[in-house]
Amino acid sequence: MMDENQFKFFKVLTEEGLDCLDRGDKENGMALIGLLFDKLQPDLVEDTKKHPEIIDKLISQTNSKHEHIALSANIMLEYLKTKGVKLK
To answer: CA 11, CA 62: separation in Å to the nearest integer?
Structure first.
């Protein structure tokens, strides 16, 4: 279970990463978000490679009417791409 300091750290990573992306600083924004994924979901890359249907689901979510879902899917796809996951 996550303690309060870890929670605050992850919250700051998320906020700073999204702020960077909002400012157009994609490199730093993705680096911060990537660090968050690395810490919270260390098996994400390997799981995605084993289960490529995850990519299909994320791609479909990029077209969501809900902006936060589409943004989250795009960020995750970009992260996976930088980690060497082949996107269709």
So the answer is: 23
pLDDT tens by residue, 14-34: 999 999 999 999 999 999 999
Can you give the pTM of this predicted structure? 0.85
- Which of 43, 57, 64 shows the shortest CA–CA distance to 87? 57
Q: Return the structure tokens found at 58.
A: 């994320």
DSSP per-residue codes, 41-85? -TTHHHHHHH-THHHHHHHHHTT-SSHHHHHHHHHHHHHHHHTTP
What dihedral do alpha carbons 3, 5, 12, 35 form, nearest 10°? -70
Distance CA 53, CA 70 (A): 17
Q: What are the pLDDT digits (tens) for 54-72?
A: 999 999 999 999 999 999 9
